[in-house]
Design a protein that fits this description.
The structure holds 2 protein chains of 2 kinds.
Chain A: H1 3-11, H2 15-37, H3 40-57, H4 67-93, H5 95-115, H6 119-135, H7 139-149, H8 155-162, H9 166-191
Chain B: H1 3-14, H2 20-32, H3 34-47, H4 62-112, H5 120-131, H6 133-136, H7 138-145
Helix pairs in contact in B: 1-3, 2-3
The chains are: A mainly alpha, B mainly alpha.
Chain lengths: 192, 146
């Protein structure tokens, strides 16, 4: 069944089509959310929100782009909103605690990398460092880099999702890589 | 190749985005510079973890949860639709009724108040009667005299 048939079916009020849409795209949505959130349970919650949004605003979808592009766009926006809200909540809770967390988490990662000889732990710490570095990127760089490296999307697909030109996407990913490299190297230089 | 130039290109070398001549210059530098070689292996070990990203399997109850949430939202929306009727029509009418009742009650109270001056004389005489009842009680006078 094509995407257009699915959309028309859902708009006519047939639940069967919505179930099929969820079945077809749940892996895409869930893994995109997880690429930004790096947490399975949060990614599941946001994936639910994405499909609810799809159901409630499907009548606004103009079929000019692919359904998958629209789903990627909603997933990215919902994930980033969640991250922003989470940051705000933390900020409201305590400004002092926030600074504490940032400082300790950075030094903790470096310390742990130094202390841990265990390969599995070392792998986990490096992954944590990588996520932290990507989270620290400017928002547009982060979206482009994550979609390119974690979701393996082409520059063309990313440009459609982000509604940017191919050149802009190339520039964003180039700058993102430079920043990732710079931040990872500065961590390792500190440890050596 | 200088170390500084090498550092700028490391990540693109890992991603295989450099030209063949650039790659060979970097290969050469890695063989000759121990510091850069060490730094490169650290960067590569961390950066390559992106490729090991775990693929999540969707929760089998995802659709049921979505449906439940949609039903809750639709219920909340239908309640919200009723709310404007209450807010725009029923609430102002109730407030107006209460105001009218209050004002009418006030007017009624005002009308029932008797404005004519009271007969202070009769009150005074009654008071006098009670105040001077000492004289009429002869028994008490007799007892006091005793």
């Amino acid at each position: 069944m094509t995407d257009n048939e699915l959309i028309d079916g859902i708009l006519s009020g047939n639940e069967k089509y919505f179930k099929e849409l969820v079945d077809n795209y749940q892996a895409l949505v869930l893994n995109t959310c997880n690429s930004f959130l790096h947490d399975k349970s949060n990614a599941e919650d946001i994936a639910q929100e994405v499909f609810i949004e799809v159901y409630l605003s499907l009548h606004k979808f103009k079929k000019e782009s692919k359904l998958s592009t629209w789903l990627y766009r909603i997933s990215v926006n919902k994930s980033l909103n969640y991250i922003r809200d989470n940051k705000k909540r933390k900020f409201v809770r305590s400004i002092e605690d926030l600074f504490k967390i940032e400082n300790t988490s950075k030094t903790q990662v470096v310390d742990n990398i130094n202390q841990n000889n265990n390969t599995e732990d070392d792998h986990e710490e490096k992954l944590q460092l990588l996520h932290q570095v990507i989270s620290g990127l400017q928002e547009n760089q982060r979206i482009a880099f994550t979609l390119s490296k974690f979701e393996n999307l082409s520059y063309k697909q990313i440009s459609e999702i982000m509604d940017l030109s191919l050149l802009s996407v190339e520039g964003l990913i180039h700058r993102a890589k430079m920043n990732v490299q710079k931040k990872i190297l500065s961590f390792f230089k500190k440890t050596n | 190749m200088k170390c500084k130039n090498f550092h700028k290109k490391m990540i693109f070398y890992i991603d295989g985005e450099l030209t063949a001549p650039e790659n060979s210059v970097i290969d050469q530098h890695l063989k000759t510079c121990n510091d850069c070689s060490l730094l490169f292996s650290e960067l590569k070990s961390c950066y390559k973890l992106i490729e090991n990203k775990e693929t999540l399997k969707p929760n089998p109850f995802l659709y049921t949860r979505i449906k439940q949430n949609i039903e809750n939202i639709e219920q909340a929306l239908s309640l919200k639709e009723l709310k404007p009727v209450y807010m725009r029509i029923i609430q102002p009418v109730l407030i107006a009724c209460l105001l009218v009742t209050g004002i009418s009650f006030g007017i009624l109270l005002g009308n029932s108040y008797d404005n004519t001056p009271q007969k202070n004389k009769s009150i005074a005489s009654t008071n006098e009667f009670y105040m001077n009842d000492f004289q009429s009680e002869e028994l008490e006078i007799n007892l006091l005299n005793e």
